[in-house]
TrEMBL record:
It comes from Enterovibrio norvegicus. The chain crosses the membrane at residues 21-38, 44-60, 80-107. This is Uncharacterized protein. Keywords: Membrane, Transmembrane, Transmembrane helix.
Amino acid sequence: MNDPQSLSEEVVFGWYSYLDRVFSLLFFTASITALQFGNLADEIATISILFFCLLGYSLSRNRNLKRHIARLERYKGRVYLFFIMWLKTPVFGLSALFLVAIATGYVTPNTLIDVSFKSWLNFQD
């Protein structure tokens, strides 16, 4: 079927799949990298977020994503697209949330000291 709705669904759902696979890996890698800088973790995370926003904007602009999303909003509604976005990109949402938590200073290297299987399972050295 080559109707506009199915074409737009294919483009938008392909973008969501790309976000979940590629951008989630980039966000998680940037999070772990930012934590390596200790006192500068929040600044490094903020720079990473700005870079990824610019990258995401340029990639979505090349795919004419705004036009396809507007078309799907007319056919299916905004609420449908909102829930589909979060259902199709769970890993992206978690990795982005982790990077934002580092950028805001909520997660620091000191808060992650006891986050390990060793401490959870009470293994001794």
